Automatic annotation (TrEMBL):
<keyword id="KW-0805">Transcription regulation</keyword>
<dbReference type="InterPro" id="IPR001845">
    <property type="entry name" value="HTH_ArsR_DNA-bd_dom"/>
</dbReference>
<dbReference type="InterPro" id="IPR011991">
    <property type="entry name" value="ArsR-like_HTH"/>
</dbReference>
<dbReference type="Pfam" id="PF01022">
    <property type="entry name" value="HTH_5"/>
</dbReference>
<dbReference type="InterPro" id="IPR047796">
    <property type="entry name" value="SdpR-like_repress"/>
</dbReference>
<keyword id="KW-0238">DNA-binding</keyword>
<dbReference type="InterPro" id="IPR036388">
    <property type="entry name" value="WH-like_DNA-bd_sf"/>
</dbReference>
<feature type="domain" description="HTH arsR-type">
    <location>
        <begin position="1"/>
        <end position="84"/>
    </location>
</feature>
<keyword id="KW-0804">Transcription</keyword>
<protein>
    <submittedName>
        <fullName>ArsR family transcriptional regulator</fullName>
    </submittedName>
</protein>
<dbReference type="InterPro" id="IPR036390">
    <property type="entry name" value="WH_DNA-bd_sf"/>
</dbReference>
<dbReference type="GO" id="GO:0003700">
    <property type="term" value="F:DNA-binding transcription factor activity"/>
</dbReference>
<dbReference type="GO" id="GO:0003677">
    <property type="term" value="F:DNA binding"/>
</dbReference>
<dbReference type="InterPro" id="IPR051081">
    <property type="entry name" value="HTH_MetalResp_TranReg"/>
</dbReference>
Length: 84
């Protein structure tokens, strides 16, 4: 759970999650939305993958990233259990 909160604690990573809510994208498509280096985008993607917020799949020359909604459902379920 700590890696999940760490991943969501960064504005750029939250923006990447928002982009992936709309559709699956490769790293270049994600990078086009930001004014930061491609290595920085890769670093953010790695943190999101470590937190299981996104998944990746090799498609031809590119790696396509998609949102892992099940981890978000788990987080929401946990948060709802805190309310009593």
């Amino acid at each position: 759970m700590n890696s999940l909160f760490k991943a969501l604690n960064d504005e750029t990573r939250r923006q990447i999650v928002d982009l992936l809510k709309q559709k699956d994208l490769n790293a270049g498509e994600i990078a086009a939305h930001f004014n930061i280096s491609k290595p920085s985008i890769s670093h953010h993607l790695d943190i999101l993958k470590q937190a299981d917020l996104i998944t990746s799949e090799k498609k031809g020359q590119f790696v396509e990233y998609s949102l892992n909604t099940s981890i978000l459902e788990d987080l929401l379920t946990w948060i709802l259990t805190l309310k009593k």
